[in-house]
Amino acid sequence: MTIHTHYQVIIVGGGTAGLTVAAQLHKKDRSLDIAIVEPSQDHYYQPAWTLVGAGTYDMAATKKRTADYIPKGVTWIMNRVDTIEGGDSRVTLDTGQSMTYDYLVVAPGIQIDWDKITGLSEAIGQGGVCSNYGHDKAEYTWECVKRLKPGDKAFFTQPDTPIKCGGAPQKIMWLTADYLRGRGLLDKVHVEMMSPGTKLFGVDVFRKALEKVQARYGTAWSHYTKLVEIRGEKNEAVFDLIDKETGEVSGQRVEHYDMIHVVPPQSAPDFIKKSDVAGPGGWVDVDKNTLQHNRFKNVFSLGDAAGTPNAKTGAAVRKQAPVLVANLLRVMKEDKVTDDKRYHGYTSCPLTTGYGEMLLAEFDYDNNPDPSLPIDTTKPRKSMWILKKYILPFMYWHGMLRGRA
After folding, report:
1. Catalytic pick among 165, 321, 328, 329
2. Residues 62-75: pLDDT tens digits?
C-alpha cells in the first residue's frame, strides 16, 4: 500500500468512533479523500466482554475483521501514530513517515495502564486475578467465577480515573452474585466492591435503583478505597484508604482474595498526551458541544480520547458522530460549525443486574436522565437483557459501523 503525503481527512483510530465517523463521512460525500490510521487487524465489540466474563457470551462472536468495516474508497493505513502536530496539520507514523491533512479527526480510544497498579501486569490471568478489560482476559473471569466456593472472598475494583463504561466494574459483580445465588452460595462467599468513589452511581435515580440491587444480594461496598498493589504470590490485594475530607491517603487495607476482578486505571494515549492537541488531563482539547478543537479549527475529536465530560461509552459515540460529521462538513464549506448540531453529553450504560435482567442508565452532561425508550428503564427488566445481549450487538455491527445509526 502506498501512503500519500497528504489527505483531505485523516482519522486517527479505527475503533468504534473512527469507523463510525468514516462511514458517515463517506456516505455524506464520497468524493472526500479519507484515510484511517489503525494498526489492528481485528475489531471487537467490547460491551459484550462483561457477558463473556459471566459465561453467557462467546468471545469469538465479539470479533470481526477490521478490513470488513473500512468503507470502500477510504484508505486504511495499518500503522500506529507516533505524534500529532496540530499547529502544522501533520501526523507522523511509528515508521517515521509523516502526512499532512486538511482536517483531522482524533479517535484513538483510551489507554489501559496495567502498570499503574504494582504487580498487576505479572498477576493478571492467573491465581484468581481477572479482568474483563481485554479480549485475551475476559474468559478467565468466567473461570474464576465458576471456581468460587464456600469461604472464598471475591473482590471487585474500580480505579480513580475515567474508564471505558463507568458501570462495568459493578456489572460483573452483580452477575457473579446472581451466579452464586443460583447455586446457593451467595451467603457463603464474601462479595465486595472496592471503590475510591463516594456512591454506587452518579445519577440519583439510577443510584437508588442500584442500591435496591445491592440490598437484594447483600453484597458489601467499600468507598474511598483504591487498589494500589496485587501480591500475586500471596493472593493479597493492597488498598489505599482515602480520607473523605482531605482526599489524602489515611492508611492501607490488605485483603486475601480468592478472586479479584480488576478494572485498571486508564488515560489518554501517550502520543496524545505529548501532542499539542492535548488539553487538561491529556485528553483532546475540544468544545464539549461541537466537538471541534478549541485551538485548531480543522481538528475534531470524539470517543474515549476526547476531552468531553461525559461517560466514555459506545452510546456516547453514537450521539457524537453525527454532530461531529455535520460540523466538520460545515467547516469545510463555510469555515464555521452548524448552529443546530450540538452534543449535550448523552450516554447510556446498560447495567446488567443479574442473568436475564438489566436496567438502562441514560443521562446527559448534567447527570439528568435522558431516556430514549418509552418505558421505565430504572427497573431491571428481561427486555433490557435482550437489548443488551442481542439487539445492541446487531445494531453495532450492521448500524453504527456502517454509518446507519
Report:
1. 165
2. 999 999 999 999 99
Q: How far apart are the first and last CA of the chain?
A: 31
β-sheet with 236-242: strand ranges across: 225-231, 236-242, 249-256
Return the number of other C-beta atoms located less than 10 Å from residue 270's C-beta.
12
Domains of the chain are: 6-110+268-342+397-402 (3.50.50.60), 113-266 (3.50.50.60)
Q: Which of 268, 349, 361, 401 is labelled catalytic?
A: 349
Provide the pairing of β-strand 129-130 with 259-261.
parallel
User: Rounded to whole angstroms, how far apart are CA atoms 65 and 401?
Assistant: 12
DSSP 8-class letter at 3: P
Pairing of strands 347-354, 190-194: unpaired
- Verify whether residue 349 is a known catalytic residue: yes
Is residue 165 annotated as part of the catalytic site, yes or no?
A: yes
- Cα 341 from Cα 387, distance rounded (Å): 28
The 10s digit of each residue's pLDDT in 10-36 is 999 999 999 999 999 999 999 999 999
Angle at 282 between CA 278 and CA 288, to 5 degrees: 70
Cα-to-chain-centroid distance, residue 403: 20
H or E element that contains 191: strand 190-194
What digits encode the pLDDT tens for the residues 209-250?
Answer: 999 999 999 999 999 999 999 999 999 999 999 999 999 999
Model confidence over 256-284: pLDDT tens digits? Answer: 999 999 999 999 999 999 999 999 999 99
pLDDT at 1 over 80: no
Q: How many CA atoms lie within 13 A of 117 on its CB side?
A: 30
